[in-house]
Specification:
mainly alpha; elongated
Length: 96
């Protein structure tokens, strides 16, 4: 019975329905992405990631400069890895 249910869930009709509903919810195209679109999408995602990293860097820098928190506490507050905090701390020491 479980095998039959698995086959039913994985059937192409169910997958097609799932895919079309997902496309509608996400507001995306069903057409395959061309090279140009792929590269633009990738660049946009990297830009967003870079912007988030810059904000995290600034937040961590401010926490280091304005608090006595240790690296673990700063990483927890900024939702970054402790190694990132150590990198920011090292950068600040180089600039002094």
């Amino acid at each position: 019975m479980a095998d039959e249910r698995s086959k039913s869930l994985l059937s192409s009709a169910n997958f097609s329905k799932f895919e079309s509903e997902t496309v509608q919810l996400e507001g995306r195209s069903t057409e395959a992405m061309g090279t140009k679109e792929y590269l633009l999408d990738r660049a946009e995602r990297q830009g967003i990631e870079k912007g988030a990293e810059v904000k995290s860097y600034e937040f961590v820098k401010n926490l280091i400069q304005n608090t006595a928190f240790d690296d673990a506490k700063i990483a927890s507050l900024a939702v970054v890895r402790e190694s990132f905090v150590k990198k920011v701390r090292a950068d600040l020491k180089k600039k002094k």
